[in-house]
Design a protein that fits this description.
- The complex is a heterodimer of chains A (434) and B (158).
- Chain A is mainly alpha-helical and 434 residues long.
- Chain A has one domain.
- In chain A, 75% of the residues lie in helices and 1% in strands.
- Chain A has a two-stranded antiparallel sheet.
- Chain A is globular, with a radius of gyration of 22 Å.
- Chain A starts with a helix and ends with a helix.
- With 158 residues, chain B is mainly α.
- Chain B folds into 2 domains: 65 residues; 79 residues, no CATH class.
- Chain B contains 6 helices and 2 strands.
- In chain B, strands 1-2 form a two-stranded antiparallel sheet.
- In chain B, helix 4 runs antiparallel to helix 5.
- In chain B, 33% of the residues are buried.
- The mean pLDDT of chain B is 79.
- The chains are: A mainly alpha (434), B mainly alpha (158).
- At the A-B interface, helix 5, helix 6, helix 15, helix 16 and helix 17 of A face helix 1, strand 1, strand 2, helix 2 and helix 3 of B.
């Protein structure tokens, strides 16, 4: 449990440090920044936190009730079904990710290939090592995450010449009262945001599109749509609630199916595996106490996090004003410690540097990073389940399309995969009719 | 930008071909106990080569038609990025000799002083306090041995 406390503490700070850096916070800046500039920074922050809190609570409720049901369902999964769920996960990235589908496919396959380097989990043969000793250990996904996200982000910031402009802020009791009064007046924005968040959270890469979707829907449904973008409260509430609800409900596929929907979840899953807990449906049978402890800790963590955030936001905001030239080398230092500590291997620190440059190139050329990391995480599992399924089916790929549970999953995966092709075609069809 | 696009897609293709070669060595067909070791990577690599070939042709035709397009980085950015990449690579190399914390202290000092143009007092304070506190937390309290390098153990003796 101490570990979970630490993990929560860590995730809270990482959320705070990156407030403008996280992709799902972008939608909140549309109205949050104008409001803060208009002389109400405290109110804007309180609104955002309250919306986060509400989104989190609903997300946790959904987690509490749906996770066991889904886990029970998932216990009936064989290798073919597991592979089908993964296909669904990755085709969601390709079809709904919004980036170039070809580049997404390339990035996913690259991740899978990196995962297959080293010992073959089924036969024990060495693969893709080309006779070298260093490649035998393969690539660990935590190292890749640290390099791709941590260092890659630093290179991007350095390139932009970094000017962090903060607005001075102090949250008083009056701001909190105002915010609470305000948020009650916008129940529609709150509910809409939360529901969209929960729904999108199940799918991989959910939080960012969820916040944008919530913002868009709320703007459409609002009577004064023209006011959006100038600092209306509803424009802060909806995307923030959606982002946090999505973040919470993203835990569900991770603990019930063992398939993380985002790199953050993948890192948390890595943490569980270090402690010898294999996330997946069996976790609900073998470690019942742990699962409920985990769900309880999300309750406690979210409630506590809300107050911590409220109390310390001004302090964190002042950390952001520290000179970047002091901050940046410290980040690289901590990244190096993290990369080394994964396996106690010096090689991983070199890999981290390489992944950093790679992450920068990927970002620049619009190759998505998140699906690549997930492919690296799930590579072994995907390959194993696919090979087992093929063995069960005596080598016929039809095994994925004849089992009653696997068939709908595979069909859904294929439809979503080809969505970029289907959507314009469907639109054309409807346009002709009309 | 488009030149970089072309080069990256070529790199993916090359990687794919290398992986295919090793998969063929391992066998990508049905082995004695089901699909052989090379089965999964082989198809991954084949699809990766195909998709990067398409990316390559898209980028190449655009390049032919409209020229190189925007540069990959804004002017001057390469220099400031190299000022981060080269010192951090140097830090990693130094780690082999003097260990992580001493190398990091040198890196911190160098970057703050030479690149950030920060005063000597702050530089020295951060450069000493940060590695020292991290050394005490990780190596002494958490008992996680971080790399000492060849001579680091002789320098840090507490």
């Amino acid at each position: 449990m101490i570990y979970w406390g630490a993990l929560y503490g860590g995730s809270i700070t990482s959320i705070l440090f990156n407030i403008p850096g996280e992709p799902w916070a972008v939608a909140a800046t549309f109205d949050g920044y104008p409001m803060a500039k208009g002389g109400q920074p405290g109110k804007a922050l309180v609104l955002a936190f309250l919306a986060h809190g509400a989104g989190a609570i609903v997300g946790v409720v959904v987690l509490t009730f749906f996770a066991p049901i889904l886990a029970e369902f998932a216990l009936r999964f064989g290798p073919a079904e597991v592979f089908a769920v993964m296909m669904l996960t990755f085709s969601a990235f390709v079809g709904l990710g919004g980036k170039s589908p070809l580049k997404t496919v390339t990035a996913i396959l690259f991740g899978f290939i990196l995962a297959s380097v080293g010992m073959d989990i089924v036969s024990g043969q060495l693969r893709m090592t080309y006779g070298t000793f260093v490649l035998m250990g393969g690539f660990h996904f935590i190292v890749a995450v640290i390099g791709l996200f941590g260092l890659g982000e630093i290179f991007l910031t350095v390139e932009e010449g970094l000017k962090v402009e903060g607005i001075k802020v102090w949250i008083g009791l009056k701001d909190i009262r105002d915010g609470m009064k305000e948020i009650i007046r916008y129940p529609k924005a709150l509910i809409m945001g939360t529901l969209i968040g929960c729904w999108m959270g199940f799918k991989p890469g959910g939080a960012t599109p969820a916040s944008f979707m919530a913002y868009g829907f709320c703007k459409q449904a609002s009577a004064n749509a023209a006011e959006f973008g100038k600092g209306v409260p509803a424009g802060i509430i909806a995307p923030e609630a959606a982002a946090h609800a999505a973040g919470t409900s993203a835990t569900i596929p991770m603990i019930t199916l063992g398939i993380p929907g985002s790199p953050t979840m993948a890192v948390i899953m890595g943490g569980l595996m270090i402690f010898g807990l294999q996330p997946g449906p069996m976790l609900f049978v073998e470690h019942k106490d742990f699962v409920w402890g985990l769900i309880a800790s999300t309750w406690v963590g979210n409630v506590l996090g809300f107050f911590v955030v409220l109390a310390f936001a001004p302090i964190f905001a002042s950390i952001l004003r520290v000179r970047f030239a002091i901050f940046m080398p410290l980040i690289i230092y901590v990244c190096a410690i993290g990369a080394y500590a994964v396996n106690n291997r010096m090689m991983d620190v070199y890999y981290m540097l390489m992944f950093g440059v790679l992450g920068y190139l990927f970002k620049k050329l619009d190759y998505p990073i998140a699906p690549m990391v997930l492919a690296l995480v799930l590579g072994d599992m995907a390959e194993q389940s696919m090979r087992q399924a093929l063995i069960i089916g005596h080598g016929s790929p039809l095994v994925f399309f004849t089992l009653p549970l696997a068939l709908p999953l595979m069909v859904a995966a294929i439809i979503i995969f080809f969505w970029p092709v289907i959507a314009p075609w469907k639109a054309k069809l409807f346009a002709k009719k009309a | 930008m488009r030149k970089a696009e072309i080069w990256v897609s070529l790199a993916f293709m090359l990687l794919g071909v290398i992986v295919i070669a090793d998969s063929i060595r391992l066998g990508f067909m049905w082995g004695r106990t089901g699909p052989a070791s090379g089965f999964f990577p082989f198809y991954l690599a084949v699809v990766m080569v195909i998709s990067s070939v398409i990316v390559f042709f898209n980028a190449f035709t655009l390049y032919k038609k409209e020229g190189a397009g925007k540069p990959l980085m804004p002017p001057g950015a390469l220099k400031s990025i190299l000022w981060v990449v080269i010192p951090s690579a140097a830090m990693v190399m130094l780690m082999e000799f003097v260990g992580l914390h001493i190398a990091a202290a040198l890196f911190l000092g160098f970057y703050m002083r030479a690149v950030g143009k920060i005063g000597w007092t702050t530089t020295l304070l951060v450069g000493i306090i940060a590695p020292l506190s991290l050394y005490i937390t990780f190596d002494k309290l958490f008992l996680i041995p971080l790399p000492q390098g060849l001579w680091g153990g002789y320098i840090l003796r507490f």
